Amino acid sequence: MGSSSSTYRPKYVYLDIGGRIQKVAFSKYCNSRDIMELFCIATGLPRTPYKVIPVTTGQQTEKEELFQNLLAQVIEQFSRVFKIDELKTDVDNHLAMLEKRVELEGLKVAEIEKCKSDIKKMRDEMAARSTRTNCPCKYSFLDESKRLVPRRDVPSYPKYMLSQETIEALRKPTFDVWLWEPNEMLSCLEHMYHDLGLVKDFNINPITLKRWLLCIHDNYRNNPFHNFRHCFCVTQMMYSMISLCSLQVKLSQMDILILMTASVCHDLDHPGYNNTYQINARTELAVRYNDISPLENHHCAVAFQILAQPECNILSHVDKEQFKRIRQGIITLILATDMARHAEILDAFKEILDKFDYSNEEHVTQLKMVLIKCCDISNEVRPMEVAEPWVDCLLEEYFMQSDREKSEGLPVAPFMDRDKVTKPTAQIGFLKFVLIPMFETVTKLFPEVEEVLLQPLWESRDRYEELKQIDDAVKELQKKKNESLAIGSKEK
User: Fold this and answer.
1) What is the pLDDT of residues 476-491, one digit of tens each?
2) What pTM does this model have?
């Protein structure tokens, strides 16, 4: 310690309290409040400012009078100090109240400004919507879909353990796609990628594959037809055709990866309304893609938005050149599923069929386009009990669209109008003019699968023609009955 602290002595004040002398010691560190406390303790008075009036007893000496005057001055100074402290306390309290009010008013102003901003945004959005037709699709130009955010935890969908019987059935077009829950379908898709050697050859992280499949599942809507089960159906048929046609012997592993991944992604975020509706209604998708395959372009965009997430990028270990080729291949195949291009693609394939060369990249691309088209519309290749529910699902989606088109004053396709179409008439034309000619063309390149692929189509055509004959006979009977009733009412 320094020398100043060791030589310091406290100061004393002596108070006469009822004839009793009270000694009060003051430190140089005492402030006015401390002095007040000491006086209150010494006098036994409450802790409020007070004034000490010196009382003279008898004749005072000059020295005593001087001391009394000095003491009076000290007391007066103490009193002023106490009043200043009180005033300071009041001012501090008042300032605190003012600060609180300013803070509250500031919060109110900020809240008001936020409300004004929100109202402006809402008005701008309403103005924008009034100038265009709302797109029924989930993704808009500006908003990032929350569904595209991958599940960051290790995917934990209940894994279905595939039996040997299921593994063998999975390679055949007769596989019943209606028997499986979503977690089982996800496990089946996962198995396909492992079984085809794609996980090993392209160094796909198994956890990334799981997460990618979950994100794919999350980005299919619950439409009657274009849903995740349809995605699984198309991919399972592609897996079957790879096996039936021995495509792993004839094509590269990159081609197999493109075929499978395009099948998985081919209808991502399908809104349940086809391209014709998109174009006629001038939706956001139609505007964005200039009326050129708006849905198929959208499916591609969503597919690569998912792959752009590191947690879902099953192609993270391929080099830039490989990724470029894979990306272009997937886009080409998904765009080929637009039925508006059906004749163009099939005719181009027929032209090269007699001179088909597996070493010719253009020939292989044409083949892959036809293969994904076959898988996309392959329901009638399956057994009747598996295929027929899909017809009901498709008609339900068609009717949903035609009802909306009628309500919006848009053109309605006859094959979608619930008042005009029947199941037999819808299927006969599709089988005779689309499905059978396309599969007949494919079996010219792969004659070994004619019985598996074509025979079910011929049988389905014959069955629907019989149903149509029955429907026609019933209609004819009903017509004659109505005519008889009409004649009878006239005679009366």
Assistant:
1) 888 888 877 777 776 6
2) 0.70
